[in-house]
User: Fold Cytochrome B561 from Pseudogulbenkiania ferrooxidans 2002.
Amino acid sequence: MAPGCNGVTQRVLVWDLPLRLFHWGMAGLFGAMWFTGKQGGDWLHYHQLAGFTLATLLLFRLVWGVFGSETARFGRFVAGPRTVVRYLRGELSEAEQPGHNPLGGWMVLALLCTLSLQVLSGLFAADVDSYLYDGPLAARVAGEVAERITAWHKASFDALLVLVSLHLLAILVYRVVKRKNLVLPMITGYKAIDGQVRSLHFAPAGLALLALGGSAGVFYALLH
Assistant:
């Protein structure tokens, strides 16, 4: 421990390994989907593979947000208006809420919802150029409906780019203005937090493997 503004600074494990792997996996898959989607043509095959993998991870994250470690649970970081106001007034310490801050929690929720819309619309989207790489469920809807969903698919990606840009901007502001590195804790799992932090609950790794396997099974069954 080292002295901090509230007496001590603790090095606290905040993010578990499953959440960190999800975060970086999602970031990599998002980049892969952007690149392959822009290339078009036969690259759309890899676009679909990246989308299927991302869909599995998203389903895992929804499960982990209910049954996983404390800092991963939606009920712990999706805050109400009063908590958001407390945070904006500087009345909510990081020791009280060591995971996502209230605004960060809402950003996570917005990203997950928009990513889910992106993935779901991709399942029904049509390859309007060659129709070789339609979404796996595109044949279950009328052609004009599939083309309309394709437009939503592209629009939701534009929305994702805006949200990702805001997310990166927030990380930069924290680094430059507040002198806090938000990237390193998502790599190591540990945060340096001023004040006394209560013991956090972490779900076992076996539960994460079960949730991931179940998510992959559900998605496979949906497509076959």
About this structure: The mean pLDDT is 89. The chain has one domain: 9-223.
